[in-house]
UniProtKB/TrEMBL annotation:
The keyword Phosphoprotein does not apply. This is Basal-body rod modification protein FlgD. It comes from Gluconobacter aidae. Gene3D superfamilies: 2.30.30.910, 2.60.40.4070. It comes from the Bacteria. Belongs to the FlgD family. Transmembrane segments: none annotated. Residues 136-201 form the FlgD/Vpr Ig-like domain. Required for flagellar hook formation. May act as a scaffolding protein. Pfam families: FlgD, FlgD_ig, FLgD_tudor. Residues 110-240 form the FlgD Tudor-like domain.
Length: 246
């Protein structure tokens, strides 16, 4: 656990950096959340369409060549065989891309089916997206030494809602937020962004990666894989670090 500390010049500097980092994290999280499977499907469809266009263009050029070749000097057997081999290669690549798209979709469906068992479990993940659920949020970070550490939380628009400097011990520390902003007003549950700033052993400021804790409420497809939903917060399944039954 950590405890709040008074404000000093050094802690003010750390807090400013934490606020800037939290705003940056909020923008990154918002951009990631706005992406959907349709973006991935559109990209895949566009690539396949381009390859299919090359395939049709190659076929048109080949047939045009056959129609207009000089009867007295036709295309050699070797050249014609090589062109047919290229034609077959393009056709095979089109079919391979189609099959890979189907395979990726099937794999994601299997991952979603498996991830459903996580719903209702308490899960930890390496992420800057902090889920506020039932007016409570929790995270952990590792401080390289006993020091003052600044923590800043922003909402989805990048507005700072909570910021404070705490006294951390060397090693793993846990910070719990009750969902109240700096004015003491209770905020609604949702997805927030967080950043933690500390100092390295040589005194330079350093961002401390956060491990957030939340309850899984759903699973969904993302642009790069399967996402885990913790209320309104969306976490890539590959970022999960552990889970428990409660």
């Amino acid at each position: 656990m950590v405890s709040s500390v008074g404000t000093t010049t050094a802690s003010t500097s750390l807090l400013s950096q934490a606020i800037a980092a939290a705003k940056s994290n909020a923008a990154a999280n918002a951009a990631s959340a706005s992406s959907s499977t349709s973006t991935s499907a559109s990209s895949s469809s566009s690539s396949l369409s381009s390859l299919g266009g090359n395939f049709n263009q190659f076929l048109t050029l080949l047939t045009t060549q056959l129609q207009h070749q000089d009867p007295s000097n036709p295309t050699s057997t070797d050249s014609f065989t090589a062109e047919l081999a290229q034609f077959a290669g393009v056709q095979q690549q089109v079919e391979t891309n189609t099959n890979l798209t189907s395979l990726i979709s099937a794999t994601q469906d299997n991952q979603i089916a498996s991830a459903v068992s996580l719903i209702g479990k308490t899960t930890t993940a390496s992420s800057s997206s902090l889920p506020l659920q039932s007016s409570s949020a929790s995270l952990s970070f590792t401080a390289p030494q006993a020091e003052d550490v600044a923590i800043a939380v922003t909402d989805s628009t990048g507005t700072v809602v909570k910021s404070e400097t705490v006294n951390a011990s060397a090693g793993t520390n846990t910070w719990t937020w009750d969902g109240k902003n700096n004015s003491g007003t209770q905020l609604s549950d949702g997805a927030y962004a967080v950043a933690v700033e500390g100092s390295s052993t040589d005194g330079t400021s350093v961002a401390l990666p956060t491990t957030i804790t939340g309850t899984v409420t759903g699973v969904s497809k993302g642009t790069t894989g399967v996402n885990i939903d913790m209320g309104d917060a969306t976490i890539d399944m590959s970022d999960l670090t552990g889970f428990s039954a409660t």
